[in-house]
Amino acid sequence: MKVTKLPWAGIRIEINDTSIVIDPLYHFPSKFGQPHEEFFPLNDFGRIDAVLITHHHPDHFDQPAIAQFYGEEIPVYLPSESLKFINSSSLKQIHGVELGQLIKIGSAEVIPAFSMDGFGDPQVSWIVRGNGHQVIHCGDTLWHGHWWNIKSTYGPFDIACLPVNAAIVEFRGDPPSGQPISLSPEQAVSAAFVLEAKTLIPIHYKAIHYPPIYRQTPDLIDRLQSSAMTRGLELSILDTKESLVLE
Residue 211 has what DSSP assignment? Predict the structure, then answer.
């Protein structure tokens, strides 16, 4: 199994001759100003067999880019509850999924598991299995009480891809809470520890920091490293296009 980092929250997973991407992004949302990392055409990362989407927000579900670079017939899987938020799309194979539903894609098995969106919108984590390994990708989840259930049902994991930017936002028109809408570095390490993940790959950071609309938590890399060391957890900080290979 080979896991490659894409910008923002994106991950590509290769299992034998099967390749899957989760939350690929190319069209950076303009409301967040200029990105703080480089974005690449999605086909720079290679061919794929399917796209897994954690939730419908445009920084996770870039429909035009998926159609442009992977073709309109590429299978796309996302939470069934998210379908009502998709008004029109050129994508021809958008499939809604339910928690615990087992889907076979070539050499891989994928399963949607619980996740908690920071705005209360539908979201899933994606578990990808193959060749005796498994990875979990949790979108932009908050801390929640289902980590233990996920571990007992599906764990342990070789890799947990978890958000770490503890974003505080002020752009929905409602009174701002001042509370993070995604995991902090310390919470991500704790979640990976509970999930019994061997390695944490941090995602969902760097690209967006546009105060006061969207604020990334400070010193996140140092905090990740310190917290991971305390927990005895392996931390793999990948730049875009870097990979981790599981033998």
Answer: T
Question: How many CB atoms within 10 Å of residue 171?
Answer: 12
3-state SS record for 187-198: HHHHHHHHCCEE
Please report the domains of the chain, with CATH numbers, ordered by start residue.
2-237 (3.60.15.10)
Quick: pLDDT tens for 139-184.
999 999 999 999 999 999 999 999 999 999 998 777 888 999 999 9
Q: Residue 82: which residues within 8 A CB-CB, separation 6 or more?
A: 53, 55, 56, 61, 96, 121, 122
State how far the Cα of 195 lies from the Cα of 9, in Å rounded to an integer: 19
Q: pLDDT tens for residues 39-89?
A: 999 999 999 999 999 999 999 999 999 999 999 999 999 999 999 999 889
Give the residue among 198, 194, 203, 99 at the shortest CA–CA distance from 147. 194
Question: Helix 185-194 vs helix 147-154: angle between axes, to the nearest 10 degrees?
Answer: 40
**68, containing H or E segment:** helix 63-70
**201 close to 3: Cβ distance less than 8 angstroms:** yes
Q: Rounded distance, CA 95 to CA 155, Å? A: 25
Contact 240, 42 (CB under 8 A): no
Q: Which two tokens stand for residue 227?
A: 């917290």
**In this structure, what DSSP letter does residue 137 have?**
E
Q: Is the pTM of this model over 0.90?
A: yes
CA dist., res. 60 & res. 128, Å (int):
18
> Distance (Å, rounded) from C-alpha 203 to C-alpha 162?
6
